[in-house]
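re: ur question from earlier - yeah i can do the single chain one, its not a big deal. heres the input i used so u can compare w yours
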Amino acid sequence: MGQPTERSSAPEPNETGTVGAPAPAPAPGPDALDEDIPYVPPVKAYERPAVGYRPPAASVETSPPTQALPTLRPARPRPTSAASGLAATGHASGPSGPDQPADQPVPDQSVPDQSVPDQSVPARPSASAASASPSPEPASSAPRPAPAGPESAPTLAGPTSTVAAPFSGDPAPPAASPAASPATAVPGQTASSTEPAVDRTSILRPAVERPTSPFSPVTPQAGPSPLGAPSLLPPTDSEGSALGGASVLGPLVGDGQPSRAPRALLWTGVVAVVVAGLYTGAQWLYADKVPTDTHVAGVDLGGLSHADAIAQLEVGLAARAKEPMQVTAGDAHTTLDPADAGLTLDAEATVSQVTGFSLRPDRLWAHLVGGKDVDPVLAVDEAKLSAAVDDLVDGLATTPVDGTVAFLDGQAVATPATDGTRITPEPAEQVLRTRWLRDSGPFDLPTEAVAPEITQQETDAALAQAQKIVSAPVVVAVGDQHPELPADALAAAVSFAPTDGALAPAFDGASLVSAVVARTNNLLTDPDDAHFEFQGGRPVVVGGESGTTLDPDALASAVGAAALGDDRTAAVDLVERAPEQSREALEALGVTEVVSSFDTPLTAEPIRTQNLRRGAELLTGHLIKPGETFSLLDALGPVTVQNGYKAAGVISNGVHTEGVGGGLSQMATTTYNAGYFAGFEDVEHRPHSVSFTRYPPGREATIFVGSLDLKFKNNTPYGAVMQSYIDGGRLYVRVWSTPYFRVETSASPKSNVVPTTTVHRSGAGCVSYPGGQPGFTITNYRQVFHGDEKVIDEKFTWTYKPDNPVVCDAPSAAAGDADSAEN
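and the output i got, formated as tokens:
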């Protein structure tokens, strides 16, 4: 910094050419110290100044006026050494003379600097300035060092005085007027000046020709002040200790240069506002436009307005939105209608992605340099989409294949296990949401593996068991015989089936029993089922003895253990085999007496009678249990030559001819009437096409293998045993049981009678026939009672054709068709 210069308001030189100096002050006592001088605390800019304290006039020592001290400008806080001074000060006095008494205080007539804030920063005088008499200390001693601290408290420049003016609060202690030391006294200054002494504050400015801030720092001068000004010390507390720390005004103090920050900040704000306005206006201008070169699923929307872009997008994607989607899951594939999947294009939301007001920079950038591809926004019906994917899960799933083990030509073979696949629903839904209209497909849906029930590991384990089974024969020890089952017999009786997630060998007991019996001699005895036999003309229960057999389950368990073990011998025992029909069960059926009987006359044809006798043998002893339905063809069949039947006369398609089992229609008629009067329920029957005098009209039946049968149901709680025999030229059929029903029957007169006419035929197959009964219609009635309750009330009407005589005229005449027959 340059040396300070005085303002033009400094006092003029006196008659001797020197500046007026204050008169020497009375010297203090030898024990005077700096601490005896009252201290006026500084008033900072942000504090309310304390009320000044002015002591009584008598208590203030008078001293010659001293030279005014220059006002110091605040220095930037920085650490200072104890030996350095804070600032150079000067004290100029006004004119003095006889009009100003020496024992009165000098009035404070400082002229403040208008460029410095009115802040009083008093300086604490040094001991050398406070004493008027010679001091033991040299006059050039350094000022009191500042207290140590990180930074020196800043000293603000401003008007100063020896005594602070009263303000408010407690009175401040009086400040003594500093006296000029010999080192700072100005020669030629006398106390006999006629002008009063006035304290003036000299404002010192830097020598550099540039404006300075009110808070420009002043570099502290080292050593004593050349003008003898008191040293500037930091404020002290009541005990005289220096108060450390920086002033709170330190951050407000600049570096002494005029600050350009406010102006730069102002211009920065103006530019920011202008740029923000231009940016917002540009965004608003482009709000309704789609950026150029913007495409949605291949549809160009660049430069279009919001409404036009929506219309363009709907038209451009209309066809694709209706096309079925090609979807795949592994090797399976199918198609899916987007509408069925709940997928539709939301054109409004799609266009809104690139239009509308927004402050996003990328939106404006797109308008300036061009847009980009934008994904379409879809409207998704979640319920439909979930249902459609569920259908795909079922439709595109591949079934896992279980591993299998079997035997081929006695050798164990296996088929490998294969995993299946199944669509994972949630990821599949996400694929459809994100790829439809964006990709052309097909859409490969994610799948997960579905393990088979029988894995490859289980298959390999089962194959090892199968190879063990057929590795050698198994010997079966039963009774006194020891049949040997070879590998092929074992392989035929063993299968591997899934059981609890594994392939377990299953041995077929029935097959093993057959294999053992085939390799033994008379090992088993069959049981004799109880049945009815007629002895002395009455039904008797016979048979019912048990036999011997092999328990299939026990044999399978024993052979299986031997085949899978090291000892390949299976020991089994014969067990008793009970008959399917026991004597006790049959005796409890209540077959005690004849409840119904019917008979018909025989013809003179011996072969026909022989067929009836064979039929009677097979029918006798036939048991009809309660609730069972009886079938005559089952009881008599099979109607073959091997079963004892012969060829006899039958009616085939209305023509009398011959057939195996001829005459059995008489057995049908006789049996039908026996069941009819027993009260049994009629299930199936059909009369002949022509009437025979040996049968009751309208109450008879015929049978023909493959088309006609006689059936009735035992609707009583008792068993019924059939009996048939031939005696006295008649065929008898009886029903043995316990009486249960009472039956009443009647018949109507014949009606619609049609007389016979002679039929002339020719051909080698023509058989002459003398003729029979005329045609007619008749109705039969039946009422069945159980006690007094009528349980059946029915009628049956039948119309017969006339049984015309046949005359063979020429041998070339063709015989009739034989599509159906009656015997």
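The chain has a mean pLDDT of 76. not sure if urs matches, ping me
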